[in-house]
Write a structure and sequence with these properties.
14% strand; alpha/beta; Rossmann fold; two-stranded antiparallel ribbon; globular; 10 helices
Length: 204
C-alpha cells in the first residue's frame, strides 16, 4: 500500500485537495477532524487539567483555549504533548485498517506533516500551495480570524517555500476547483504505478 502525506499551510487549499482524493475513492485520514473529535471526548479532561476553564459540558471551548494559548508561550507545546499522541494512534489505526482491507493507496491529511517529522513516514508528500495574497485572503475571510492570529499560526508552520521544496508533488490551488481536481487526477495516475515501502517500515 502506498501512503501519501498531504499537507499545506493554512489557507492553501489542502482540504479541497483532500476532497479530490476522496472523490476518487481513496480513503483520507483528516487530522483536523480527529482533533475536533478529541476535543469532544478523549482529550477533554487532560486539556482542562492543563488549561483550567477552557472546557464546558464535556467538550473543549476552542475560543477559550485559543485565548489561553495566546497568553502562554509554552502552551502550544503542552497542548501538543496531549493531543499528538492521540492523533498518531488514530493515524496508525487508520493506516492499518486500510492495509487490512487491501487498499492500494491511503492519504494522511496532516497540516503539520513536515513540522512533526511525518513526512519521513510516508511514501509520497503532496503539498497544496497558492500565493501569499490568496492565502491571506482566504484565511482572513474566516470567522473570528485576525491578522495577529494568522501571524501566530504561520509562525508555528514551516514556510510554504520549504514545504514545496520537500514535496514530491505540488498542487497549485490558485485556480478553480476543477483545475485542482485535474492536478490531483494526474498525481493519482502517476501514483497508481508505484509500490509503497512506508507501511512495512513504519506502520506495520
Amino acid at each position: 500500500m502506498l501512503i501519501v502525506g498531504l499537507t499545506g499551510s493554512i489557507g492553501m487549499g489542502k482540504s479541497t485537495a483532500a476532497a479530490c482524493f476522496r472523490d476518487r475513492g481513496i480513503a483520507v485520514f483528516d487530522a483536523d477532524a480527529e482533533v475536533h473529535r478529541l476535543y469532544e471526548g478523549a482529550a477533554v479532561a487532560s486539556i482542562e487539567a492543563a488549561f483550567p476553564g477552557t472546557t464546558a459540558e464535556g467538550r473543549v471551548e476552542r475560543a477559550k483555549l485559543a485565548d489561553a494559548l495566546a497568553g502562554d508561550p509554552q502552551g502550544f507545546a503542552r497542548l501538543e504533548r496531549i493531543v499528538h499522541p492521540l492523533v498518531q494512534a488514530a493515524e496508525r489505526a487508520f493506516v492499518r485498517s486500510e492495509a487490512r482491507r487491501g487498499a492500494s493507496m491511503a492519504v494522511l491529511d496532516i497540516p503539520l506533516l513536515c513540522e512533526t517529522g511525518g513526512d519521513e513516514k510516508v511514501d509520497v508528500v503532496v503539498v497544496a500551495s497558492a500565493s501569499a495574497a490568496t492565502q491571506t485572503s482566504r484565511v482572513m475571510s474566516r470567522p473570528g480570524m485576525t491578522a495577529q492570529r494568522l501571524e501566530s499560526l504561520l509562525a508555528r508552520q514551516i514556510s510554504d517555500a520549504e514545504k514545496r521544496r520537500r514535496a514530491d508533488f505540488v498542487v497549485d490551488t490558485e485556480g478553480s476547483i476543477a483545475e485542482t481536481r485535474a492536478q490531483i487526477d494526474a498525481i493519482i495516475t502517476v501514483l497508481r504505478s508505484r509500490e509503497g515501502q512506508a507501511f512495512e517500515r513504519d506502520w506495520a
